[in-house]
Design brief:
- The chain is of the alpha/beta class.
- The chain has two domains: 3-142, 3-Layer(aba) Sandwich (Rossmann fold), CATH 3.40.50.720; 147-247, ProC-like, C-terminal domain (N-(1-d-carboxylethyl)-l-norvaline Dehydrogenase, domain 2).
- The chain has ten helices and seven strands.
- It has helices spanning 10-21, 32-36, 56-65, 122-133, 144-172, 183-192, 198-201, 205-208, 211-222, 228-247; strands at residues 3-6, 26-29, 49-52, 72-75, 92-97, 115-119, 139-141.
- A seven-stranded mixed β-sheet has the order 2-1-3-4-5-6-7, with helices on both faces.
- Helix 9 (211-222) runs antiparallel to helix 10 (228-247).
- The model has no long low-confidence stretch (mean pLDDT 95).
Length: 249
């Protein structure tokens, strides 16, 4: 199967690298020149499958430029529907890898990365499955609605947790304590949820209903010498998350 990956950002670069590691030749094409000059689409290589790894806001525009009615068209978005592919693309699917990618650190082994797939019909599902199976055995057929919920869950589990690390680093700024001092705690929490549910793994003053510690920590936050907006958000997040843990304990 001749595969062209349209979009040379973090996902596309990693996907191209992963296929190459498995001995599958793919061609990686930058999407930006296509949108800047639609006539350059004529230079796209012919392929049996086009995988679109562009930002959600550009996906419809890029997809509309490619004219290949006999090919399989697949996007890798967690949020976009399969109907982003119009009637001119009867063979279509989704191949969403639940992972955080960067161009700076390319992932060689995708065997533990789950992939959530969708197809217009059973043949398209089979084709997307076969392609995903080249990289991982953890493949799940998933509806658009479930994939959207998964994407939101991933934002909470990954993006928002990283934001919490950033806030923690800001709180420690100006002290003699490096952020690295938190890493064993962060790592241990991540290990715990491999065997415990997140609810059962929850710890801390909110989980214990330790009002004295909660009150004291709020005083510490109020006295921090952070920029006003950062301090306000840190205080509001502390209150909201504390309330959530208390009410759902």
């Amino acid at each position: 199967m001749r595969i062209v990956i349209v979009g040379a950002g973090s996902v596309g670069t990693n996907l191209h690298h992963a296929f190459e590691c498995k001995g599958v030749k793919t061609e990686l094409v930058h999407a930006r020149p296509l949108t800047a000059d639609p006539s350059s689409v004529a230079l796209l290589p012919e392929a049996d499958c086009y995988i679109y790894t562009v930002a959600d806001q550009a996906l419809r525009e890029v997809v509309a430029l490619v004219k290949a009615p006999k090919a399989l068209h697949v996007h890798t978005s967690g949020s976009m529907p399969i109907d982003v592919f119009g009637d001119d693309k009867p063979h279509a699917g989704v191949m969403y890898f639940l992972q955080s990618f960067s161009r700076e650190v390319l992932i060689d082994d995708w065997s533990t990365i789950p992939c959530f797939i969708e197809g217009r019909d059973i043949d398209d599902v089979a084709a997307v499955y076969t392609m995903a199976q080249t990289l991982t055995s953890r493949i799940f057929e998933c509806t658009q609605q479930d994939r959207e919920k998964l994407h939101v869950a991933a934002v909470f589990a990954n993006n928002f947790s990283n934001c919490m690390y950033r806030i923690a680093a800001e709180i420690l700024r100006g002290t003699s304590i490096p952020f690295a001092a938190l890493l064993p705690l962060i790592d241990q929490t991540a290990v715990k949820i491999h065997t415990l549910s997140p609810k059962d793994a929850q710890s801390g003053p909110a989980q214990r209903s330790d009002e004295r510690v909660i009150a004291h920590q709020k005083e510490v936050l109020a006295q921090m010498s952070l920029p006003l907006s950062q301090k306000r958000y840190a205080q509001e997040l502390y209150d909201l998350i504390t309330a959530y843990i208390r009410e759902n304990n």
